[in-house]
Amino acid sequence: MNCLVCRKPMTVPWTPGTLLRRDWVCSDCESLLTPLAPGCPRCGHPTEDGRTCADCVRWLGLGFDLTVRSLYAYDEAGANWLHRYKFGGDTALVEHVRSLLRTCREPGMIYVPIPLGAERLKTRRFNQAELLARAIGPTASLLEKKEVSSQRELGKEQRRHRPNPFAIHKASRCEKIVLVDDVYTTGTTLHQAAFTLKKAGYEEVSAVCLFRALNKSKTRPI
C-alpha cells in the first residue's frame, strides 16, 4: 500500500473496511495541509488584523462583490496534494478532505462547480471542482466555459485581465448559489463566474475554495 500523496509505502491495520477504502494518505502527509486561520473576511487570505485584504479591496473597487470561504493554504503541501488530485487523477483524495468540505454545507444552498472547457474535460476525464462540490451538498451545472488557455500559461496580470469565458449553461430556480473551485489565486475565475450568474438574475452568490494561494507564495504555477 502506498500513500496517494507522497507515494511512499505505508502499513495499514486490517479491518473489514480496508478493502473499501481508496483514500490512503500516510500520517506524515495527513498533517501537512495547513487549514487557514480566520483572515480576510472576503477570501480567507491571512491578514494580521483580520481586515479585508488588498486583493479584495481591488475587486470591490472594480464593482465585484463576492465572499469566498477558503479552507487550506496553497503552500508546498497544498500544491503536492492538488497536483496528485488534479493532474495525477487520484480522485479518491476527495475523501481525505470530505469532512472539512462538508462543514461548508448550508441549508437551501446549491453548489455550482466551476466548469472546464470541453477539450480540457476530455483530456482530464473529470472536473476536479465538480467532485469537490458533490462532497459538500446538492449540485447544479449552471455554467459552461469556453475553451481558453490554461492559467498555468498566463502571468498574474494576464489572468486578471482575460476575457470572461463563462456563460449560462442552463437556467434553474436556484436562489442561493455557492460556487466551488479547487484553488483561488487571483480570484478572476470566481469573480467572472459570479458576475455571469448575477447578470443572469441569480442575486445571492458566494463561493468555496479548497485552497487559497498566498500572495507571497513561491509554490509552482497551478
UniProtKB/TrEMBL annotation:
InterPro entries: ComF/GntX_DNA_util-trans, PRTase-like, PRTase_dom. Gene3D superfamilies: 3.40.50.2020. CDD domains: PRTases_typeI (cd06223). Signal peptide: none annotated. Pfam families: Pribosyltran. Residues 173-215 form the Phosphoribosyltransferase domain. Belongs to the ComF/GntX family. This is DNA utilization protein GntX. It comes from Exiguobacterium aurantiacum.
